[in-house]
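User: Second chain of the day. Same drill as before.
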Amino acid sequence: MNTTEQSSNYQNLQDMTVEEILTGINNEDRQVPIAVAREIPQISRLVDGIVERMKRGGRVFYLGAGTSGRLGVVDASEIPPTYGVHDKFIGLIAGGDKAIRNAVEAAEDNPDQGWNDILPFGPDENDTVVGVAASGRTPYVIGAVRKARENGLLTGCITCNEGSDLAAASEIPVEVVVGPEFVTGSTRMKSGTAQKLVLNMISTAAMIRLGHVKGNKMVDMQLTNKKLVDRGSRMIMGETGITDYDLARRLLLKYGSVRKAVDAYIGGDKDAE
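Assistant: Same format as last time:
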């Protein structure tokens, strides 16, 4: 039996107090970062491959079904506002965008559909496909990874079982084995947390290596709300030594990003209209 399907280490959950339930969940969640740490060498290999290809114009496709698919979509959707990078991380979910909110029956069972969902993007050997499936046996994901590998794309996966078909199909498998779920088989819990952590690690490390972070700041973030404008203004003050908040804000709004505003100020623009 797959680890993700093994019976919970806790019995008679319905008889527990709320505090006992929460303590049990928390105890299980503590195992997740430990399991992720064991896979850092594999995650590092995957990130290195992604960065190498992205420097040549490549993209990353996350594919999953259910919770796994939603997590990939979330991670991909946060790259443009966070790093100002568009169309480089693409999240695809079995059943299409409507499956983000509602389950689509049997969508994950078609082994051809995942690759068919990638084809409209014109995939090539500079791209990477990362299959995300806690079980490691989702046909939608496995089929896409196999076709991607056949076509020369880099392939990786994030799964929570050892020795899965998905891992075997992937060039660089990441197997984060977190053990049985608190509620038996509910992989939106520990497995989902592990997948989110790894997805964050992949995209964040890639963006840092590709130059979208300076020091520890998101210098290419989009200015989509007042909070981010304020953050960007203070980042400019810190980078340049400007003490006038209004000047920093004007520079930010004039140039559209922290990076461009700092470069312009250093280059001689000491004021902004």
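The longest helix spans residues 190-209.

User: Great, on to the next one.
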